[in-house]
Design goal:
DNA polymerase, domain 1; 3 domains; six-stranded mixed beta sheet; 8 strands; about 50% helix; nucleotide binding; nucleic acid binding; 3'-5' exonuclease activity
Length: about 425
């Protein structure tokens, strides 16, 4: 695995690249999976008697199973070694949570793992997110393997990242991979923490980590069927109704069978049916996307929602414009709908890009694109640094973000008046 460059301003030369040492085995070997109440009690005591932060990771099977459930929990703590817990037979891990107390949890991309861990009643009192730390430090690549190579000079294999973690028993090479994922997280945390403090970004990181830890569950999406891949090619309401009907039928099947929706019926098949609008089972099975053996066997099942959509009264067809939200319209329409807002967005993007370059922080970590668009579309009535800062803070920007961007955005907006 090639290393990321320590200087984000330009490409690395071969001489600059650090030597990478492959990480092949955990220090204490691969532990047995904890999958009984007795083994869990023993692991809990080990974690309780240890000290310091705890490295945490979780494996899901989102490409295979319905939803985002956790199918393996990995933990490592100084004095306890590595613990691999199977949450399928042990869904309540509150005893682990209690044993860890107020210990800091070290995770990579914590926002991906914390919702699933919460279902096992695992909720940290403090978080250090190594991916967010890497972003704040301006590392050009922030995947775990890339960060471990850049910071520690170690090669971390990722060939099992997308396997079906609901498989039982778990293969030994998968368990090796899972154990290595937490093997060096504590070392990585120490090095990244030192670098953040040296760069004057330690407080920024603490605010970001706490925001991730306290983030509420994502609200249900409005019209989630509109996220079907390829939907952009369909604008006709009748065809959109076919997409909606097939998506809902697939969702029902996927949930009932505990299978990833894409394995029940691919998005491409849904879009193809909507474009063709077949009026019979035979016409449906003539589509290339429905000629597979499994799909043909259920052709009548899939044609039923298509027929229902084709028979819907005009007044029940979905809008081609999508549901109404409080979000601003797409920026590509701003120059026609509100030229002043388009001008604000242009100068704001330039200002945020300049700040990001100065501090070596990605622009999306300085301010989310949605928040920036909302500010530019609906700015405060009186434009100055205070009003812009208040607007950003009320919308959820962290204090460090407000301190960096509010003065520059206010100044940029004033130039347009």
């Amino acid at each position: 695995m090639s290393s990321a460059h320590p200087d984000v301003t330009g490409p690395a030369s071969d001489e600059d690249a650090p030597e990478i040492t492959p990480l092949r085995e955990p220090r204490e070997g691969v532990p047995a999976v904890v999958d009984t109440p007795e083994a869990l009690a023993e692991a809990v005591e080990r974690l309780r008697s240890a000290s310091g932060p705890v490295a945490v990771d979780a494996e899901r099977a989102s490409g295979y199973r319905y939803g985002q459930r956790t199918f393996l929990v990995q933990m490592r703590r100084e004095g306890a070694g590595t613990v691999l817990i199977d949450p399928v037979p042990l869904p309540d891990l509150s005893s682990v949570d209690e044993a860890l107390g107020d210990a800091e949890w070290v995770l990579h991309a914590a926002s991906q793992d914390l919702p699933g861990l919460s279902e096992q009643r695992l909720r940290p009192a403090a978080v250090f997110d190594t991916e967010l730390a890497a972003r704040l430090l301006g590392l050009p690549r922030v995947g775990l393997a890339a960060v471990v190579a850049e910071i520690l000079g170690l090669g971390l294999a990722k060939e099992h990242s997308a396997v079906d973690w609901s498989t039982r028993p778990l293969p030994q090479d998968w368990l090796l991979y899972a154990a290595l994922d937490v093997e060096v997280l504590l070392d990585l945390r120490r090095e990244l923490g030192d670098r953040l403090d040296a760069a004057g970004k330690g407080e920024w990181a603490r605010q970001e980590f706490e925001a991730v830890r306290l983030a509420p569950p994502a609200p249900p999406r409005v019209d989630p069927w509109r996220r079907t891949s390829g939907l952009h090619a369909i604008r006709d309401p009748r065809r959109l109704a076919v997409v909606r009907a097939l998506w809902q039928a697939r969702e029902h099947d996927a949930r009932r069978r505990d299978v990833s929706p894409g394995r029940v019926l691919p998005d491409a098949a849904i879009v193809a049916a909507a474009q063709a609008m077949p009026t019979s089972v035979t016409a449906l099975t003539e589509l290339p996307q429905f000629k597979g053996k499994a799909t043909r066997r259920r052709a009548e099942h899939w044609f039923a929602p298509v027929a229902e959509a084709l028979a819907l009264p005009e007044g029940q067809l979905p809008s081609s414009r999508g549901p109404r939200t409080d979000a601003p319209p797409p920026p590509r329409t701003w120059s026609d709908r509100d030229p002043a807002a388009a001008a604000r967005l242009a100068v704001a993007r330039t200002a945020v890009a300049e700040i990001g370059e100065e501090h070596q922080v990605p622009v999306e970590n300085l301010l989310t694109p949605d928040l920036l668009r909302r500010l530019c579309w609906s700015p405060p009535a009186r434009i100055d640094e205070v009003s812009v800062a208040e607007t950003l803070a009320a919308a959820g920007a962290r204090p460090w973000q407000v301190e960096l961007v509010a003065p520059r955005l206010a100044a940029a907006f004033v130039t347009l008046q």
